[in-house]
Amino acid sequence: MKKILLVFLFVILAFGTLLAACGQADEEEGQAGTPADTQDTTDEETGDDTDGEADAGDFNVKMVTDVGGVDDKSFNESAWEGLQQFGQDHGVEVDYIQSSDASDYAPNLNRLARDNTSLSFAIGFLMADDIYSVADQHQDKQFAIVDVVIEDEDGNTVPNIANITFAEHQGSFLVGVIAGLQTETNHVGFIGGVEGFLIKKFENGFKAGVKAVNPDAQISVQYAQDFNDASRGQSIANTLYSNGADVIYHAAGGTGNGLFTEAINRARNGENVWVIGVDKDQAEEGAWDGGNVTLSSMIKRVDQAVYQVSEMTMNGNFPGGEILEFGLDDEGVGIAPTTDNVTQESLDAVEEWKQKILNGEITVPQTDEEYEEYLASL
Amino acid sequence: MDIISTLNLIIPTAIFAATPLIFTALGGLFSERAGVVNIGLEGLMVIGAFSGIVFTLIFEGLGFGAASPWVALLVAMLIGAVFSLFHAVASITLRADQIVSGVALNFLAIGLSVFLVREFFGRGQTDYINARIFRESVPVLRDIPIIGNWFFSSIYPTSFVAFFLVFIVWYVVFKTPFGLRLRSVGEHPMAADTMGIKVNRMKYIAVMLSGALAGIGGAVYAITTSANFGGGTIAGQGFMSLAALIFGKWHPLGVLGAALFFGFAQSLSIAAQQIPALANVPQVYLLIAPYVLTILALAGFVGKAEGPKAIGKSYEKGSR
C-alpha cells in the first residue's frame, strides 16, 4: 500500500517536471530529439502565418528565441513582430523556434542551418558562443545575432554572421534630455543592472543628455549588480528618491520592477516622482489608479533592425562580418510612443537634440572616458 | 547626510526587506520544531507569490477594489497549506527523506507555476496588479520624535502583521498545550507517543502551518514589491528564511532579529553608496558587506545553533 502511494507521488512529481518543460516551450516537443524527430515535427511548430504566401523564390528567414520565449513582451517578441511584418510585406516564409533552455541554442541554430534557411537570426547575446560554433560548421549559411559582436580568436568578425547592435547611448541621451528638463529638484538618478560595457552605454548617454539641457543637475548612479532582484531595486530607488532625485531612469530588467513599485508608493503619498523605462514602452508598468509614474521610455526597435537586415539579405546585400549599429538615423532607438507625461517643451527639445545627433553636431559618449571628454567640451 | 537621516533611510528599508523573510521563517519554525526539515520553503513561497498575484488580478476583475490583495493573501495562505501536503505525505506518511522531498517541492512549485502562467496569460509573466498594498503612515505615532520616522511614517501594513505574528507564534509555541506537544514531537517523538500525543497528526499540522505562512511570505513579496509574477520573482528568499530560522535558533524572537539583521545589512549596503563619507569605498566592499556581516555574526556572536533533537528523522511507531 505504501509502495503504491510512493509510486503515485513520484508520478506526480515527474509530471510536474514535465509541465515545467512544456511551460517554457509549449510550441514544440521534439527539439532535443534526433534529427529525424525534429524533421517530423517541423510542420506543427511553424509560427502562425505566411504559409502559402511564399512567392519570392526560396528565400526564407527564421529566428531562434532565447529563453525568454517569443512572447516575452520584450526583445524576442519585438524581433518576431519585425519578421512577421517582413514576411507580409515581401511574401516570404518566416518562422521561429523557441529555446526553453540554454542547451537548446546550438541544436536550434543547427536545425535552421540544415533546413537551408536563407538567414537565421539568433536573438540575444546569450547565444554568442553557440552561433559562433554553428556558423563555423555551416560556412555556406547566413546568420545574424542581436546585441553582440561575434569575433574569432584573432578578434576578427566572422564573415557569415551579421552583428546587430544598437546605439543605446543615443536613445538614452534623448530620455536624459527629458529628465533634465522635467526634474523639479534638479536631481536625477540612474539604476543599472550589472555594471559592464553595455549598461555603461545607457548610463553615459543618459548623463550626457541631462547635462546637455541642465548642466547644474545632480546625477546619482547606482548599480544593483543583478537584473532580477526587485527588492534591491526598490531599496535603491527609495534611497535615491529620499536623497532628492525625482526622475530615475533604469536599465536593470526585472530589478526595475522595484523602482516602479517605489515610485507608485511615493506618487500615492502625493510626491512628484517619475520613472523612465527601458527597452520597450513601460507605460503599463507605471500605471496606478491615480495616474502613471512613467515619464517616458527608451525603446530599442529590434523589429526594425530585424526587418532591415532581412531586406538587405533578400536583395543580395547580406552584411556578413559587418557590425551594424542601429541608432537614431534608422529608427533603431528612440523614445516611447506614450508621451502623456512629457511636456511639449521637452518633446521639442528631444526633436532638436535628435537633429543635432543626426547631423553630427554632437557625439554621444559611450564610455566613462568619453563622458569626461564630453563634459569638458560643454 | 547626518546619522539620523541615514537611519531614517536605512531602517524602514530594512523592515520592508525583512517582512517576507519573517513570515516564511516563522512557517519553517513550526515545521522544524515538529521535527520536519522544510527545504521546500522556497517552493512554498513561489506558490504563494503566484497565487497572490493571480488572485489579486482575479479579485480586481470581480470588483473587490482595494481589498483584493488582502483577500488574495488569504487565498495564497490556503493554497500554500494545501501545497505543503506533498511534503507532508512524502516525508511523514511515506517516510521519504525530508531533504529530497523538500527539494522536489521546490522544483514542482516553479514548474507548475510557470506552466500555469503560460496557460493563463500566454506569456512568461503575469500582468501587473493595480490594487497593491501601499506604505502607510500611522497618525499620532508618526509624530513621536525619531522612532516615529523609523517605524510609523512609511511602513507596509504587512510589516505590522509580521511583527504581531512573531509574538503570537511565540505565545503558541511556548505557552500553550499545543506548542508543548509540537516541541515534544520534535524532541522525542517516542516519549510524546507514549504520552498519547498523535505524533504524525502533529507533524501534519506543523507542515501545513509552514505552508500557510510561507505562502503568505511569498504573496507579500510579490504584492508589495514585484507587482507581477514570473519564473524569477522568488529567487532565494526561501533559503534566506531558512538561514534566518537557524540563525535565530528556532526561536520566534531570534527569527525576528535574524530577518531584521539580513534586511539591515542589505539596506545598509545600498544606502551606503549614497552617503558622501563612504562614496570613495569601492562598491564591491559594500556589496559583500551583508554576507561578511552574516558570517561574522554566525561565527562569533551567536554561538552554537542547536536544533530540535529529532529533526530530520521520520517517526515509526514502535521503533526504538
From TrEMBL, chain A:
Coiled coil: none annotated. Residues 1-20 form the signal peptide. Residues 40-56 have a biased composition (Acidic residues). Residues 28-57 are annotated as: Disordered. It holds the Pfam family Bmp. Keywords: Cell membrane, Lipoprotein, Membrane, Signal. It is found in: Cell membrane. Residues 61-367 form the ABC transporter substrate-binding protein PnrA-like domain. This is BMP family protein. It comes from Evansella tamaricis.
Automatic annotation (TrEMBL), chain B:
The chain crosses the membrane at residues 6-31, 43-64, 70-92, 99-117, 155-174, 204-223, 284-303. It is found in: Cell membrane. It comes from the Bacteria. InterPro entries: ABC_transp_permease. CDD domains: TM_PBP1_transp_TpRbsC_like. It is a multi-pass membrane protein. Keywords: Cell membrane, Membrane, Transmembrane, Transmembrane helix. This is ABC transporter permease.
